Structure of Pentatricopeptide repeat-containing protein, chloroplastic:
Amino acid sequence: MTHRSSLTCRAGIPQLPAAGPRSCRPDAGSRSREKLLEALLRLPSSLPDLTSVVEAEVGSEFSAWRGSPQKATWFLSGLARSRKWFLARALLEAQLRQKLSVNAVHYNVVISACGKCGQWPTALHLLEEMASSSKVPRDTISFSAAISACERAGKWEVAVALLGEMDVARVAKDIIIFNSAISACEKGLQWQVAVQLLVDVGSARLAKDTYTFNSAISACWKCAEWEVSLGLFEEMSREKVQKDTITYSAAISACSKGGRWQTALDLLAEMVAVSVARNVITFGAAVTVCEKCGQWRAALALFAEMDTAKVHKDTVLFNSAISACEKAFEWQAALHLLAEMATVKVNKDTISFSAAISACEKGRQWQAALELLFVGMAAAGVQKNSVAASAAISACEKCAQWQAALQLLDDMREEKVAIDTIMCNAAISACEKGGSPWRVALQLLDDMFAARVERSTVTFNSAIAACEKGGQWTGALAVALLDEMISVQVEPDGISFAAALRACGKVHDESESLF
């Protein structure tokens, strides 16, 4: 996102000396100051009374700080930059104990340090302390640091409440404060509050910037308010606010929520026209739109465009493209992409293989599915999981390969892969479609009960259908399965009753043929 002004720079906090060679040697006072800072930085946070230890460490140096508050600022800034928020707070408390002059800059540095280290409750406590016990006037930077702390922690309610507190305290707001609050709303998925804050920015007669809009657009698309996102995108043009890569990425992501794949591609092309850099996130968002809209050819075209734009492809992007092919039943294209990952040295993960195996399942390529599961995943060092195994068993089921499905189920048990309802359903269905002995299907049903795997209506329906294809006694078994469904609180549906009736009808026909 676009940069936000540093709180340190805004407060006029002096910078620490840069590391590395110097053109001249520091004076004795400077060297002593640096040694004291190093000594403070070595103090652990686990000390029982850290403030007293810091107070003793600084010692007589406190006397030099009287009338020179910038000296204390230098030390507080050094501790803050080293992410030692607890030491910065302890030093601030030590200053108060020594009855030294403490100002807003001192508090602002420590509040900012707490926020950057995820210590938002401490940041809020210090902000309150300024107004209560210390009687230090709070300024825009004080609130900005506290709101930024809440933003980092995703505490949008507190961030918005602090905006209201600024009105009560008559502290002026700036665009940085609004940006932090809107970003907090984005993280908290509060798109309506984010949009209202955007309106408040206009009411405060502040100029919105790229960051302002980016956070609001992202908040909207994350909440599936894609039309609002695209509306804000257009508003940026009307208000002549510059769009960047993040703006376009958020707008393209919004298109995925509304199924606007052509709009996404148009936005991607517009980036070239207005000279906005495209990166893997932008292309990834566009590929995701194509995947969700079933536009696998467009997804593959984007891959070729990435090569031209010299944008590196990552695992997530490949996974989206493979998934697009899987949804379109294009198993060959999915396998080609999986092979390309090895060529361009992009790591494959369980999602890559699961999507490719699922593509093979939909293409009725059960042997290819098994090869990916046992050979491909092992070669890539990827652990098998329930999703990949379920897809492979389903591939066997669709091709009526019941023996392969049962063997695969046994292999997964041996490899400690969690057996779930989907796997077992596919295996039982494979038995039914492949014409296996009905006893095999019923044994799987019993195994599920023993292993405490949930049995669904689909599970029982497949088992009843297997009985339908059995012999003389299977009609009674089908009825018994219906009774069992009711006893274990699995609701039979029309398919359940129809399969049971067919099984009973077949037994009746066979009985008549005996006479």
